[in-house]
Amino acid sequence: MTAEISQLDLEEAGAVLAAESARFASFGWMRGTSGNLSVVLSRDPLRLAVTASGHDKGELTPADVVLVDGQGAAVHVGKPSAEAELHARVAALTGAGAVVHVHTVASVAMGRREPGGIVFKDLEMLKGVGQPAHDVEVTLPVIANSQDMKVLGDRLEAARDPRMPAVVVAGHGLYVWGDSPRQARHHTEVVEWLLELELAQ
Q: Which residues form the Class II aldolase/adducin N-terminal domain (predicted)?
């Protein structure tokens, strides 16, 4: 471990991420080994605990996390998610304390239906992402997918709307963030509700 972050810190973060992952997996949003979560453990230097690669997200233990740096590279032992670099980019760009990536049917379907972005308005649930329920339009950006996390991060940075703590990655899934794992979870559930509503219309 680094001097700033102890093994206990990492295990405590792992316990939080395991619980959050189990919740999302129970909704069918992290099928197989898909999806990944992270929580920021320090800002200077940037360090995140990220769920380990290749694990069933409904069965994670507190040990199934990897400490990564601001480029998403493992600081100690372990193999983080291949998308750890994007988690780090989102945390640095938005100031988020936690990032959620889930593979939901609604996010992929709506990304195909509305590749220019998904517009929401006049919905009470918008309050769940800090926006007024009426008289404002909020767009959830949709960005093209890439296996290159630098390219994907550039697309996210160019497209993101500060009023919406989320983006859809076309053909892939949903990235959502918040100040804490709890807020990131709430944002994820709200954005997914909005997507499911749009899909049903």
A: 15-199
